[in-house]
Batch of 2 targets.
Target 1
Amino acid sequence: MKLKIFLFALFSLIATAQAQNSGTVSGKIIEKSNNAPISYATVSIKENGKVVSGVNTDDNGDFTIKNLALKSYTIEIQYIGFKKYVGSLILSENRKTATVNVSLEEEATQLKGVNIVAERSTIEQKIDRKVITVGKDLTTAGASASDIMSNIPSVNVDQDGKLSLRGNDNVRVLIDGRPSNIDPAQLLKQIPSTSIKKIELITNPSAKYNPEGMSGIINIVLHKSANTGFNGSYSGGITFGETAKYNQSLDLNYKTGKVNFFGNGGQNFGTYYNKGRIQRLDQDIEQNLKISNENDNYLYKLGMDYLINDKNTLSFYTNQNKSTGNGNVITDIDYNNADPNIFNIYQDSHYKGPTKTGTYNLAYKHIFKKEGHTLDFEGNYSDTKADQNASFNTTTTRPDNTSNNVIYSDQIGDQRKLSTINVDYVNPLNDKTTLEAGAEARLTRTNNDYNTGNPLVPVDERVSNYTYDTDIYSAYVTFGQKFKKFSYQLGTRFESYKVQANLNYGFKTFNDDYITLYPSAYLTYNLNEKNVLQFSYSRRVDRPSIEQTKPIREFSTPLVTSYGNPELRPQFTNSVEVNYTKTLEKGSVTTGVFVRSINDQIGRTLSPDPSNPAQKQILSYTNFDHNSAYGFDVSLNYKITKWWDIQPSIDFSSIKQQGVVFKYDPITNTSSPLERSVTTTAFNGRMNSNFKPTKRLSFLLFGFYRGPVEDIQQNRHEMYKMDIGSRYTLLDNKMNISLRFNDVFKTMKYAFDGIYPYPQTGQFSWESRTVYLGLTYNFGGAKIKNLQRKQREDNTNKGGGGMF
């Protein structure tokens, strides 16, 4: 007992002595312009250039740093948007406390307002991605993200809004680094163009990312204000085509103390028109289609961030999406002959139904004492419900004008639930070495109900239920080092994948369960400060989606019916890339070369319908044999004069395809499989040219060309267009008015021809010639929050498991 008392007294004496021989620095940080306290400013105490202690100011701008040795120090105070303060202080036996009160002065270059958008877009090549910072020239492209995408190098958007990257549509689309249950083509039409901060093209993702997407990842990063006080922006526009389409969005942010509230909502509505013609040459059959879609879409997001302290942040948000569609498809099929046994067919079909998606996200971030040392936890849940009621009114007419009428309806109900939990850890072992690791569980549950009154469908198949469930468990680790001119990163992802599909009739089930490794490697060499060379390798996978596997009608016309294939296998891709970036005096140029090896590529098939091989066709999916691909892309960002800059880009890809097509024999009225091998080449060119005659007024000229493509099934013809636009800025740069005339000469159309399974040609066109008028207004202008908060919002790569 006496020993314990002695030790306690001894330790107390030592602690008292240490306290008496240490110093304390305290003070208050305010704004020079209005004497307002600055919260979360960074205060650092340095000795001989090395940080020995530091804190962030509290909500009142106050700080205290204790237990400092009695020495001479340098004190640095930093806050984004303000000039850095550097001073000296001396702690000694005679002066053990020091008070430092500082008034920080704003940077002369600080901009007011929110969501500051540069005049022109820029392209930057980083170690694992190409980053396109969206400027005002791109936001003038149109109302939505879908309109911007066709202006991005290496990205193509087809007439249905589907994306492809480097000529391949096996691309994964993320919003702020996270997947969505919403179909990307639909989602991009609902995101306002003014909400986009940057677009990241990750053509060869590392092991830290989920491995889906043969051609890589397109990550769309949205603006999110990190400003204190109340800030917001409004954008609205109207697109004039055959009819007017409207869009509007509102972004709001309120930051006070340790809590940041944010929200945004968007709406677009209108009627969109398409038309097409398919001509069968061997029997002189002409099929004409007129398609209209009346859409009303809502998308909003609400969330908050709570800064527990300078080391811990808790965040929550929810996305809610609702889409109501009313589609009409008129199919007119003419058999241009006098055979009394052949009917002309006229079908009027209607599709109507709402789609609702709710997403809920909870995230926690811990920042360790060492700079760059972080731990992230995230949980994400989304639920999508889609109902469709379809009605078909089909009239068949003989050459003698006698007719027959059949009316029936279909009901489809889809539900998808996606649950994701992941953890990501980053540890800079030293100033040259970084270790990253993470794990993720991703569970998907899908249910599809189908009920049809079609008299041609067998009775036992008129009511069906199809389920498609996947369980994915994964873990990754990456290790990287940086040297003076050379850096590398090696990594691998371990993944367990299990799928189970079941169709209620015919006892049709499908199961697959496998474990795979996905390695990656990055090498970067800086030839000098203006020339950077990069090499990368990755292994990717494309798994069949429910749309590709569902053995239930996706859509149907009198001559074509679309089904999925439940026995599709995943396709694996090994990809190698070399990228080069050169910084010029007035811009930069980036170029890349890639080679891919593809196993079991998933592709479309068009084959005769066994129920009527002479007239009807089945559109489905299958696995083709081993394929290979190579290509390159080049993009330039160059400012010719103060008032004129250009952004040309080209990309080329060549894909060797091997697979099976069907050839119909009209003599025997049968079709037979045929092995076919082709080398498909795709070439795309773009030119963005911006002219700025005054500070407020600017003009743009955009040209696009897509070369012809021969694939294993058909030949696609070339496409090209030219757009012109202008933008005017007013109200101290807070308001922008944009005007754009798209496809001035109305040259955009999708045309094709082929001989499998029948010789046929076709062409589809849509409202490509439109005029867009848009307005954007920013309000609020508070100061930007602390550095750590900003780093959290920049959406740069900080972890895997599907999280950037």
Target 2
Amino acid sequence: MRQYISRLQWIVMALTISVLAGSCSKNLDQQPESTVDKDAIFGSEAGMKLYTNSFYDVLPGINDTYKVDATADFSAVSSIPDYLRKGAYNARVADGWDWKQLRNINYFIVNCNNPAVDSTTRGNYIGLARFFRAYFYFEKVKRFGDVPWINRPLSIDDKDMLYAGRDKRTLVMDSIIADLDYAASHITLKTDPTASQITKYVVYGLKSRVCLFEGTFRKYQTSYELTSTAPALLQQAADAAAKVMAEGGFSLNQAGGNGLSYRQLFTSAGPVVSEVMLANVSSTTLAVFNDANWYFTSATYGNRLSFTRKFINTYLNIDGTPFTSKSGHDTLPLAKETLDRDKRLQQTIRMGSYTRTDNGKTIAAPPVFSYTYTGYMPIKFSLDDTYYDNGRTGTSSIALMRYAEILLNYAEATAELGKLSDADWAKTVGALRQRAGITGGLGAKPTVADNYLQTNYFPDITDAALLEIRRERGIELVLEGFRVHDLIRWKKGDLLSKSWNGMYVPALDTPMDLNGDGQYDVCFYKTLPATQIKGVTYINVSPTINGVTNPQQLSNDTYGEIHWLDNVERDWSDYKYLYPIPYNDLQLNPKLGQNPGWEL
């Protein structure tokens, strides 16, 4: 089981103990060993296994995944990210140009050649190393574009490479795919009952992710003049996903029925291994916990991440029709707009009959406006007992790769290639929607483009099936760290600068029941009433408070959608599709050059 402790310390300690134990033999004239040499690592499978455990630190930590989407277009948070504020982000505050993990990986690859270990075993562990090198470099390319491709451990004497310029993304991406192909053909582990180790099919899963990203990036980011190379990458994405689908043995979790199966994937202590391919595994024994509850149910620890209404509107009706095709949908309060919808909605936000446990007692749990700005409060990763709300105590494992993603990778790549069939639709998007309780449109791909998606999200996309795949990807993978990079590869970064809207408020000074349980929960006002109802949160939506612009107002002053932080200007420019090279690193090596548009 993979846990987050210092891997290199563990390796050195474990191998040193092994060496010391071996020295306590009857042959007392042996030379003592005070350090771990290469043979202790590369001379046995045990040594290589211990060393390669350190590579897992390349993956996101157990508290990272569900926070990545805080900067996505569907998230309203406590402040506008600096990256989206004019002049607030530049090379002097940039980060991410860190290469320590790469040196650790390259050291292993170069030195894993001891003939005392058979070639199959060595190939397996080199395959693991190359998987992690591919993962490391994929993250770097997504962030910076061109980066130096380094395939050996550098020393202080390697000045030509230490002070060289960056390699083209085409070379780096080709090298990433080559690493993944090697890993897929050499890693021997095919299944893992803990979902915590890299298997052959996790490699294929990552390849489908990588090739889909790069294929669509080259298709839509036309300024790179790489459009002609996109189809080959998209085909590789489809082929890799198809490999997982045909051979991996995974399936969508159905254990909890339509109303629970989806959320079980994010609240179970052990990974739901039928669907979860790779996870950060929690452990009460080793005190490995997450902070999801603390993050989503605190007014101060997290950033009060709330969903926008524009995103919530994309959840279909239970019969498979668009919610936004319903007459009067735009003036429905939360308790009514959430009825008869895709059942993933009730497993993603607080609504309806959702309850929690407090000191053993079941309590109603409507959205709490101390924790949410828009009314759409996430529950996808948080546990239902308030015990977990006040610290890093979460016992759920956090999925890093799911079979659902692979289905969506296959559907999207195939649709982009113009090859998506009704059968493909049924086994991918149709299967996901069926798991969510949706009853219509499961067996055949759609032929009529949804106007809401085109108008609000993707005006340049006319393919009805591709629009729906993008809808499905947003809903199925919400808060799993994919959204921002999806927008980047689709060249839709402008969506990040849109205003944050929330639930509909029919009138001021009228208490609202948010979950339909007959109890009032919140009231919006300009003048606080003299008498207040116990248990109701009162929210001031006046244009100004004490002479300062109020960041939380209603769209029509006395009624309408909640708007949050419209008073702070958002700025998007296409140069922001890449981050700047940090200033200090440019000072050390000017040959790196700065990404266009960023000030030095």
